[in-house]
Protein backbone atom coordinates (compact mmCIF):
# COMPACT_ATOMS: atom_id res chain seq x y z
CA UNK A 1 0.00 0.00 0.00
CA UNK A 2 1.42 3.39 -1.01
CA UNK A 3 0.08 5.26 2.02
CA UNK A 4 1.48 8.60 0.92
CA UNK A 5 -0.29 8.48 -2.44
CA UNK A 6 -3.55 7.34 -0.83
CA UNK A 7 -3.39 10.17 1.74
CA UNK A 8 -2.77 12.73 -0.98
CA UNK A 9 -5.81 11.54 -2.88
CA UNK A 10 -7.87 11.51 0.32
CA UNK A 11 -6.78 15.07 1.14
CA UNK A 12 -7.73 16.28 -2.36
CA UNK A 13 -11.14 14.66 -1.93
CA UNK A 14 -11.67 16.21 1.51
CA UNK A 15 -10.47 19.73 0.65
CA UNK A 16 -13.89 21.01 -0.55
CA UNK A 17 -15.35 19.99 2.83
CA UNK A 18 -12.85 22.06 4.80
CA UNK A 19 -14.52 25.22 6.16
CA UNK A 20 -17.89 23.46 6.07
CA UNK A 21 -19.32 23.08 9.52
CA UNK A 22 -18.65 25.25 12.55
CA UNK A 23 -15.63 25.52 14.77
CA UNK A 24 -16.65 24.69 18.36
CA UNK A 25 -17.19 27.84 20.37
CA UNK A 26 -18.83 26.56 23.54
CA UNK A 27 -15.33 26.36 24.99
CA UNK A 28 -14.22 29.90 24.02
CA UNK A 29 -10.52 29.01 23.79
CA UNK A 30 -11.25 26.54 20.96
CA UNK A 31 -12.64 29.30 18.75
CA UNK A 32 -9.25 30.79 17.99
CA UNK A 33 -8.30 27.86 15.71
CA UNK A 34 -8.40 28.54 11.96
CA UNK A 35 -11.22 26.73 10.16
CA UNK A 36 -8.90 26.21 7.15
CA UNK A 37 -6.84 23.51 8.78
CA UNK A 38 -6.78 19.99 7.40
CA UNK A 39 -4.30 17.23 8.17
CA UNK A 40 -4.29 13.46 8.09
CA UNK A 41 -1.76 10.87 9.27
CA UNK A 42 -1.48 7.10 9.21
CA UNK A 43 0.79 5.07 11.49
CA UNK A 44 1.17 1.45 10.47
CA UNK A 45 1.61 -1.28 13.05
CA UNK A 46 5.39 -1.23 12.55
CA UNK A 47 5.57 2.43 13.53
CA UNK A 48 6.05 3.96 10.06
CA UNK A 49 4.11 7.21 9.77
CA UNK A 50 2.81 9.08 6.75
CA UNK A 51 0.93 12.36 6.59
CA UNK A 52 -0.28 15.24 4.47
CA UNK A 53 -1.47 18.79 5.09
CA UNK A 54 -1.42 20.10 8.67
CA UNK A 55 -0.59 16.69 10.10
CA UNK A 56 2.17 17.95 12.39
CA UNK A 57 0.27 20.89 13.89
CA UNK A 58 -0.98 20.32 17.46
CA UNK A 59 -4.66 20.75 18.23
CA UNK A 60 -6.87 20.19 21.27
CA UNK A 61 -7.55 16.45 21.60
CA UNK A 62 -10.73 16.99 23.66
CA UNK A 63 -12.86 13.83 23.68
CA UNK A 64 -10.24 11.74 21.88
CA UNK A 65 -8.58 11.64 25.32
CA UNK A 66 -11.46 9.43 26.48
CA UNK A 67 -10.04 6.48 24.54
CA UNK A 68 -6.72 6.80 26.34
CA UNK A 69 -8.21 7.18 29.81
CA UNK A 70 -10.30 4.05 29.22
CA UNK A 71 -7.24 2.15 27.97
CA UNK A 72 -5.19 3.20 31.00
CA UNK A 73 -7.91 2.16 33.43
CA UNK A 74 -8.34 -1.20 31.71
CA UNK A 75 -4.56 -1.68 31.61
CA UNK A 76 -4.26 -1.15 35.34
CA UNK A 77 -7.30 -3.03 36.49
CA UNK A 78 -7.94 -5.67 33.82
CA UNK A 79 -11.64 -6.05 33.40
CA UNK A 80 -13.09 -8.98 35.23
CA UNK A 81 -11.32 -8.14 38.49
CA UNK A 82 -11.70 -4.47 39.24
CA UNK A 83 -14.50 -3.90 36.86
CA UNK A 84 -15.04 -0.44 35.38
CA UNK A 85 -17.97 -1.93 33.47
CA UNK A 86 -20.02 -2.09 36.65
CA UNK A 87 -19.87 1.70 36.82
CA UNK A 88 -20.31 2.56 33.15
CA UNK A 89 -22.21 0.83 30.36
CA UNK A 90 -21.32 0.16 26.75
CA UNK A 91 -24.44 1.04 24.82
CA UNK A 92 -24.86 4.00 22.51
CA UNK A 93 -26.76 6.71 24.33
CA UNK A 94 -28.84 8.22 21.53
CA UNK A 95 -28.49 11.53 23.35
CA UNK A 96 -25.96 14.40 23.09
CA UNK A 97 -22.53 13.86 24.65
CA UNK A 98 -23.22 16.12 27.61
CA UNK A 99 -26.79 15.04 28.31
CA UNK A 100 -28.09 14.52 31.83
CA UNK A 101 -31.41 12.88 31.02
CA UNK A 102 -30.56 9.18 31.14
CA UNK A 103 -28.54 9.39 34.33
CA UNK A 104 -31.52 9.77 36.64
CA UNK A 105 -33.50 6.89 35.16
CA UNK A 106 -30.39 4.69 35.09
CA UNK A 107 -29.22 5.31 38.66
CA UNK A 108 -26.16 7.37 37.87
CA UNK A 109 -24.60 4.71 35.59
CA UNK A 110 -23.67 6.43 32.30
CA UNK A 111 -24.46 4.62 29.08
CA UNK A 112 -20.88 4.44 27.82
CA UNK A 113 -17.35 5.73 28.53
CA UNK A 114 -17.33 8.19 25.62
CA UNK A 115 -20.19 10.47 26.65
CA UNK A 116 -19.05 13.03 29.19
CA UNK A 117 -20.70 11.32 32.18
CA UNK A 118 -19.00 8.03 31.34
CA UNK A 119 -15.66 9.70 30.74
CA UNK A 120 -15.90 11.39 34.14
CA UNK A 121 -16.35 7.98 35.79
CA UNK A 122 -13.33 6.63 33.92
CA UNK A 123 -11.21 9.65 34.90
CA UNK A 124 -12.38 9.19 38.49
CA UNK A 125 -11.15 5.59 38.39
CA UNK A 126 -7.85 6.62 36.82
CA UNK A 127 -7.45 9.20 39.56
CA UNK A 128 -7.89 6.48 42.20
CA UNK A 129 -5.48 4.14 40.42
CA UNK A 130 -2.72 6.68 39.72
CA UNK A 131 -3.20 9.56 42.17
CA UNK A 132 -2.87 11.97 39.22
CA UNK A 133 -5.08 11.02 36.29
CA UNK A 134 -4.24 13.79 33.84
CA UNK A 135 -0.48 13.74 34.40
CA UNK A 136 -0.33 9.96 34.08
CA UNK A 137 -2.20 10.26 30.78
CA UNK A 138 0.16 12.98 29.55
CA UNK A 139 3.19 10.81 30.42
CA UNK A 140 1.67 7.83 28.66
CA UNK A 141 0.93 9.89 25.54
CA UNK A 142 4.44 11.34 25.48
CA UNK A 143 5.95 7.89 25.68
CA UNK A 144 3.62 6.26 23.22
CA UNK A 145 3.80 9.06 20.62
CA UNK A 146 7.56 9.44 21.05
CA UNK A 147 6.98 13.18 21.45
CA UNK A 148 8.34 14.43 24.80
CA UNK A 149 7.01 17.94 24.11
CA UNK A 150 3.32 17.10 24.44
CA UNK A 151 1.67 19.42 26.95
CA UNK A 152 -1.59 20.60 28.43
CA UNK A 153 -3.05 23.83 27.05
CA UNK A 154 -3.71 25.85 30.15
CA UNK A 155 -5.95 28.38 28.36
CA UNK A 156 -8.24 25.58 27.14
CA UNK A 157 -8.34 23.86 30.54
CA UNK A 158 -9.11 27.18 32.28
CA UNK A 159 -11.75 28.03 29.71
CA UNK A 160 -13.42 24.65 30.20
CA UNK A 161 -13.38 25.07 33.96
CA UNK A 162 -14.94 28.50 33.60
CA UNK A 163 -17.70 27.15 31.37
CA UNK A 164 -17.87 23.76 33.07
CA UNK A 165 -21.23 23.91 34.82
CA UNK A 166 -22.66 21.08 32.76
CA UNK A 167 -19.77 18.72 33.47
CA UNK A 168 -19.84 19.69 37.14
CA UNK A 169 -23.58 18.93 37.21
CA UNK A 170 -23.00 15.50 35.64
CA UNK A 171 -20.30 14.72 38.18
CA UNK A 172 -22.34 15.88 41.19
CA UNK A 173 -25.32 13.92 39.98
CA UNK A 174 -23.28 10.73 39.68
CA UNK A 175 -21.69 11.39 43.06
CA UNK A 176 -25.19 11.51 44.54
CA UNK A 177 -25.65 7.92 43.32
CA UNK A 178 -22.30 6.91 44.82
CA UNK A 179 -20.70 6.47 41.40
CA UNK A 180 -17.61 8.63 42.03
CA UNK A 181 -14.72 7.71 44.30
CA UNK A 182 -13.02 11.10 44.40
CA UNK A 183 -14.30 14.61 45.19
CA UNK A 184 -16.13 16.22 42.28
CA UNK A 185 -13.75 19.22 41.94
CA UNK A 186 -10.76 16.93 41.53
CA UNK A 187 -12.49 14.68 38.98
CA UNK A 188 -13.61 17.53 36.76
CA UNK A 189 -10.26 19.27 37.03
CA UNK A 190 -8.42 16.16 35.79
CA UNK A 191 -11.03 15.69 33.08
CA UNK A 192 -10.54 19.27 31.82
CA UNK A 193 -6.77 18.86 31.85
CA UNK A 194 -6.89 15.60 29.89
CA UNK A 195 -9.18 17.22 27.27
CA UNK A 196 -6.79 20.17 26.93
CA UNK A 197 -3.78 18.09 25.81
CA UNK A 198 -2.49 19.30 22.46
CA UNK A 199 -1.39 16.70 19.91
CA UNK A 200 -0.94 16.55 16.16
CA UNK A 201 -2.41 13.98 13.78
CA UNK A 202 1.02 12.37 13.76
CA UNK A 203 1.17 12.17 17.58
CA UNK A 204 -2.34 10.72 17.87
CA UNK A 205 -1.95 8.17 15.07
CA UNK A 206 1.28 6.90 16.64
CA UNK A 207 -0.04 6.99 20.22
CA UNK A 208 -3.15 5.04 19.22
CA UNK A 209 -1.06 2.30 17.64
CA UNK A 210 -1.77 -0.16 20.47
CA UNK A 211 -5.38 -0.35 19.28
CA UNK A 212 -4.24 -1.61 15.87
CA UNK A 213 -1.61 -3.90 17.46
CA UNK A 214 -4.18 -5.77 19.57
CA UNK A 215 -2.96 -4.15 22.78
CA UNK A 216 0.82 -4.02 22.21
CA UNK A 217 2.60 -0.75 22.93
CA UNK A 218 5.10 0.90 20.60
CA UNK A 219 8.00 -0.78 22.44
CA UNK A 220 6.42 -4.23 22.04
CA UNK A 221 5.33 -4.55 25.69
CA UNK A 222 1.72 -5.38 26.41
CA UNK A 223 -0.64 -2.60 27.52
CA UNK A 224 -3.88 -4.53 27.09
CA UNK A 225 -4.91 -8.09 26.43
CA UNK A 226 -6.02 -8.56 22.83
CA UNK A 227 -9.61 -8.97 23.97
CA UNK A 228 -9.45 -5.69 25.88
CA UNK A 229 -8.17 -3.83 22.81
CA UNK A 230 -10.99 -5.44 20.86
CA UNK A 231 -13.49 -4.15 23.41
CA UNK A 232 -12.21 -0.59 23.23
CA UNK A 233 -12.42 -0.73 19.43
CA UNK A 234 -15.96 -2.11 19.69
CA UNK A 235 -17.07 0.72 21.96
CA UNK A 236 -15.42 3.23 19.62
CA UNK A 237 -17.39 1.80 16.71
CA UNK A 238 -20.72 1.93 18.54
CA UNK A 239 -20.25 5.06 20.68
CA UNK A 240 -17.15 6.96 19.46
CA UNK A 241 -18.62 9.60 17.17
CA UNK A 242 -21.29 11.15 19.38
CA UNK A 243 -24.85 10.60 18.35
CA UNK A 244 -23.80 9.76 14.79
CA UNK A 245 -22.01 6.45 15.39
CA UNK A 246 -24.50 4.52 13.26
CA UNK A 247 -24.04 6.90 10.34
CA UNK A 248 -20.27 6.82 10.82
CA UNK A 249 -20.15 3.01 10.83
CA UNK A 250 -22.31 3.06 7.71
CA UNK A 251 -20.07 5.50 5.86
CA UNK A 252 -16.62 4.63 7.19
CA UNK A 253 -16.87 1.20 8.81
CA UNK A 254 -14.09 1.69 11.36
CA UNK A 255 -13.82 2.13 15.12
CA UNK A 256 -13.29 5.87 15.62
CA UNK A 257 -13.32 8.56 18.28
CA UNK A 258 -13.89 12.19 17.55
CA UNK A 259 -13.43 15.34 19.62
CA UNK A 260 -14.82 18.86 19.40
CA UNK A 261 -11.32 20.12 18.54
CA UNK A 262 -12.01 18.61 15.10
CA UNK A 263 -9.82 15.52 15.41
CA UNK A 264 -10.90 11.94 14.74
CA UNK A 265 -8.80 8.82 15.30
CA UNK A 266 -9.77 5.63 13.53
CA UNK A 267 -8.37 2.12 13.81
CA UNK A 268 -7.90 -0.62 11.25
CA UNK A 269 -7.05 -3.55 13.56
CA UNK A 270 -3.95 -5.42 12.45
CA UNK A 271 -2.95 -2.69 9.97
CA UNK A 272 -2.79 0.91 11.09
CA UNK A 273 -4.20 3.82 13.10
CA UNK A 274 -5.30 7.04 11.39
CA UNK A 275 -5.88 10.52 12.67
CA UNK A 276 -7.52 13.30 10.72
CA UNK A 277 -8.07 16.90 11.81
CA UNK A 278 -10.16 19.75 10.48
CA UNK A 279 -11.94 22.04 12.96
CA UNK A 280 -15.29 22.59 11.19
CA UNK A 281 -17.87 20.38 12.94
CA UNK A 282 -21.26 19.10 11.79
CA UNK A 283 -24.38 19.44 13.95
CA UNK A 284 -23.46 16.32 15.92
CA UNK A 285 -19.92 17.47 16.71
CA UNK A 286 -17.87 15.47 14.18
CA UNK A 287 -15.37 17.08 11.81
CA UNK A 288 -17.04 17.43 8.41
CA UNK A 289 -13.85 17.17 6.34
CA UNK A 290 -12.47 14.55 8.72
CA UNK A 291 -15.45 12.24 8.21
CA UNK A 292 -15.29 12.80 4.43
CA UNK A 293 -11.59 11.91 4.47
CA UNK A 294 -12.06 8.68 6.43
CA UNK A 295 -14.99 7.75 4.22
CA UNK A 296 -12.79 8.20 1.15
CA UNK A 297 -9.85 6.35 2.75
CA UNK A 298 -11.89 3.21 3.32
CA UNK A 299 -13.45 3.51 -0.14
CA UNK A 300 -10.04 3.73 -1.81
CA UNK A 301 -8.34 1.00 0.22
CA UNK A 302 -11.30 -1.30 0.71
CA UNK A 303 -10.18 -1.58 4.36
CA UNK A 304 -12.87 -1.56 6.99
CA UNK A 305 -13.83 -3.96 9.76
CA UNK A 306 -16.71 -5.23 7.64
N1 LIG B 1 -14.00 18.82 27.10
C1 LIG B 1 -15.16 18.76 26.30
C2 LIG B 1 -16.41 18.76 27.18
O1 LIG B 1 -16.45 18.11 28.16
C3 LIG B 1 -15.09 17.51 25.46
C4 LIG B 1 -16.03 17.62 24.39
C5 LIG B 1 -15.78 16.70 23.26
O2 LIG B 1 -14.72 16.72 22.61
O3 LIG B 1 -16.71 15.94 23.01
O4 LIG B 1 -17.35 19.43 26.90
N to C succession of SSEs: HEEEHHHHHHHEHHHHEEEH
Largest beta-sheet details: 5 strands, antiparallel
CATH architecture: 3-Layer(aba) Sandwich
| Gross morphology | globular
Q: Within the CATH hierarchy, at the fold level, what is the topology?
A: Beta-lactamase
Q: Which residues sit in consecutive blocks of at least 5 with pLDDT less than 50?
A: none
Account of the 3D structure:
The chain has 13 helices and 7 strands. Strand 1 and strand 2 form a beta hairpin. By secondary structure, it is an alpha+beta fold. The two termini are about 20 Å apart. The longest helix is centred in the middle third of the chain and has 15 residues. Helix 7 packs across helix 8. Strands 2-1-7-6-5 form a 5-stranded antiparallel β-sheet. A two-stranded antiparallel sheet has the order 3-4. It has a single domain, classed as Beta-lactamase, CATH 3.40.710. The protein is about 45% helix and about 10% strand. The model has no long low-confidence stretch (mean pLDDT about 95). Glutamic acid binds next to loops. Glutamic acid (GLU) binds next to loops.
Amino acid sequence: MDYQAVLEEVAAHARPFVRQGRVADYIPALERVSADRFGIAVADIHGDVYGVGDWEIPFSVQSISKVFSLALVMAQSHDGHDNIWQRVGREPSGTPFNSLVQLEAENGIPRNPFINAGALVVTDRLQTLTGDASTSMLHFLREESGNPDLAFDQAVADSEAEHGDRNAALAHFMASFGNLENPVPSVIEHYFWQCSIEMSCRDLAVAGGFLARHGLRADGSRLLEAREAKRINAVMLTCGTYDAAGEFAYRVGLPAKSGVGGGIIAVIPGRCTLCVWSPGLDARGNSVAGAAALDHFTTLTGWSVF
